[in-house]
């Protein structure tokens, strides 16, 4: 068995030129080096991105809460304005020429509707 495996390995060696094998090893080493460099660059970028995200995350959360609070405040203000306009129209019917004027005064877009 051992003699047969040695004979097969000798035959394989004669099939392939040693210069081709050396060239193939050299190419594989170059590719390995490039992949290791790329992996190092990507690891550095991931660390940098993680640091940036951790710095910005708190501000983003705070600003999101602020915007939601502002939206609810504006909704309340516009609700009160509509109520006041309705009372003015009820008390003084001639304050606005017609009911279409009330609709034109409130042209605030509905932000809840998808576009």
TrEMBL record:
Residues forming coiled coils: none
Identify its protein family. Answer: Belongs to the KXD1 family.
Q: What is this protein called?
A: KxDL domain-containing protein
Give the top-rank taxon of the lineage listed in the UniProt record for this protein: Eukaryota
What is the source species? Answer: Penstemon smallii
Start and end residues of each KxDL domain? 12-96
Fetch the Pfam families from UniProt. Answer: KxDL
